[in-house]
Amino acid sequence: MYGAVFLTGATGFVGQAVLDKLISTGCNDVKVLVRNPGKLKVDSKYVTIIEGDILKVNTYEKCLEKCLNGIDTVIHLIGIIRESYADGVTFDNLHYAATKNLVDISLKAGVQKFIYISSNGARSDAVSGYHGTKYLAEQYLISSGLNYTILRPSIIYGPEDSFINMLGRIMKKNPLFFSIGSGNYLLQPVSVYEVSEIIAKVVDNEQANCRVFMICGNKVLTYTELLKLIMKILNIRRVIVPLPLILLYPAIFLLGRFKGFPITKDQLQMLIEGNICNDRAVFDMFGVESRDIEDTLKKYLC
Question: Which domains does the chain have, with CATH numbers?
Fold first, then answer.
């Protein structure tokens, strides 16, 4: 039986799916922290909006402390895939500092469970700032004394994802597709439907307490195989031209900071090192059915 839930990142790609899943499975008290309420697509009498910026504690701290009294579970989804230094939107600020602030407030308010959505690949010796700061946030949560569940999903795909949809858009516009390096990097994408279902089931299950779970799809693909799958679903043919890393690195160094450039240094590093796992514990524990990536993409990728 659901208690009151506090959710961050509700206007994002994953957050909206999680919010919808919570409401549809019986949660009738969800408080969401959003910077722009107009972006919230889930309209329900069970949702209470708290307007604030996760990077500006003064915009939500007092309200958050008040709202958190009586909150059973905090679900912290906020994260970024690329930094914007001019706006102070960095991995360290969004992943570590923001999580630390929310953990501290939750601890003070007596929250019963804190669910943190990290990333497959988060570790102490991470090369990328993305994975490194996710790991630091995990460690702060674990050491806080809060009852926690940490989920580490692989690449998440779905109707509004910023990876597979981006690849599809580029392919549709260009007869040539410039692939990255060898293209042999192993990926194991998982759908937003699986991730949101798992999160909703973790909320009210003690088996997940004080545990870390990997969440990967049921099919391992190389980057090149994923590109070919996208072309198959879109029913298009494109010539894949491997772009040597030795040429890509200078371009990323010069242009990676600009939003219009499709890949950053961190994203390249994470792609090269791969993103797979063989841990199916969370699927087995909660009876969540894995979705086939090809069947799932066919329903929305066009």
Answer: 5-156+191-215+278-289 (3.40.50.720)
